Amino acid sequence: MNRKNKTLFMVQFAVLLAIEAIFCFTPLGSLPAIGPIVATLGMIPVIITALSLGTKAGTAMGAFAGLFSFLVWTFMPPTPISAFVFTPFYSFGEFSGNFGSILICFIPRILVGTVAGASHKTFSRLFSEKSILRFSLSAALGSLTNTFLVMGGIWLFFGDQYATLAGDVMLKIIGLTIFNKRYT
C-alpha cells in the first residue's frame, strides 16, 4: 500500500470511528426497544468499515465499538436496570456484572466486523461487483451476529438475574427483540 492509499485508509477509518463515537456517546445511537433492552445504531459504522475497508478494519472498529459500549454502560448507562450485563463495574440492587459482562460487551461487537467483512468477501465471489445483494446480506449477517450473541450472552450468563428483573417474560423479550431485529 503506498503512502496515498495508507493516508486515505486512515482518514476513512478515522471518520467512521468518529461516527461510531457519536453513536455510542450520544443519544443519537440508542433506540428504545422492548422493556430494558436498548437497540443500538453503533453497529452501522462497524459494518460499513468492514464492507469498505476490509475484515481486519471492521474487526478493529468492532473492538472500538466494544470499548465505547463498555465505557457507556459503566459510566452512563442508557437503562441502569440492565447495565450489569455489559459491565462488571455496575450493580443494580443485588445484581452485579461479572466476567460474562465483558464477554457480552466485546465479543459480539468485534465479531460483527469479522462476520460482515468475511461474508462480504465470500459473497464477492458469488455476486457482481456492485451487487446490492452482496452488501445487504453481509450487513444483515453482521447485524444479526450482534443481536444473537448479545441476547444469547444475556441468557447464558444472566438468565436467572435478568428473568428476576424482567419477570416471566425474559425469554419473550429476548425472542421478540431478535424477531423484531430480523424483520425490520
Per DSSP E runs of 2 or more residues, the count of β-strands stands at 4
The rough form would be described as: globular
Total number of distinct structural domains: 1
Give the rounded overall mean pLDDT.
86
Distance between the termini: 39 Å
Structural class: mainly alpha
The CATH class is Mainly Alpha
Largest sheet: 2 strands, antiparallel
Rg from C-alpha positions? Answer: 17 Å
What's the CATH topology label?
A: Arp2/3 complex 21 kDa subunit ARPC3
Protein model, in words:
This protein is mainly α and 184 residues long. The protein has one domain: Arp2/3 complex 21 kDa subunit ARPC3 (Orthogonal Bundle), CATH 1.10.1760.20. The protein has helices at residues 3-25, 43-53, 55-75, 99-126, 132-166, 170-182; strands spanning 30-32, 38-40, 91-92, 95-96. The strands form two sheets. A two-stranded antiparallel ribbon has the order 1-2. The protein has a two-stranded antiparallel sheet with strand order 3-4.
